[in-house]
């Protein structure tokens, strides 16, 4: 009988944006991803981008950095993302979700455009789409190799 080959471990880095202390959704997402067979390095709430970069250095095979924001200040909290990406300190897909802007009038297209300009690869409005997105990214990485930070998948899920 052949020994079963175990699939490689899947790891993601999860946290809540620097100015945000909302912990419940973060914990629920962690539990959802663990049920999906993904190891989660949960950095918790109020996580500066520098801590995501440090976590990526410790886990360079991480599939993605997942950042939640419920207070609407994601764009400000991610202002250093272009510098960190350019330096290779975060060299995997970056996924952002939650309440991404403040005020009563919200434009998801504008929010997404601004976040993409900062280097965010995927913007999700529904956390239940996260396992599917990660599976698609993993499949794209296997098919094309790890070269592109976005994993070769562009806007795979509609908002």
Task: Report on the architecture of this protein.
The chain has 159 residues and is of the alpha/beta class. 36% of the residues lie in helices and 15% in strands. The chain is built from 6 helices and 5 strands, in the order βαβαβααβαβα. The chain has helices at 24-35, 49-58, 74-77, 81-86, 108-117, 130-144, and strands spanning 11-16, 39-42, 64-69, 94-98, 122-124. It has a 5-stranded parallel beta sheet, with helices on both faces. The protein is globular and about 60 Å long. The N and C termini lie far apart (47 Å). Residues 150-156 have low confidence and may be disordered.
Write a compact overview of the structure shown.
The chain is of the alpha/beta class and 159 residues long.
What tags apply to this protein structure?
159 residues, five-stranded parallel beta sheet, alpha/beta
Mean pLDDT: 88
Low-confidence stretches: 150-156
Secondary structure tally: strands = 5
From the alpha-carbon coordinates, what is the Rg to the nearest angstrom? 15 Å
Across the major sheet, the strand order is 2-1-3-4-5
Strand content: 15-25%
Summarize the topology.
Blueprint: E1 11-16, H1 24-35, E2 39-42, H2 49-58, E3 64-69, H3 74-77, H4 81-86, E4 94-98, H5 108-117, E5 122-124, H6 130-144
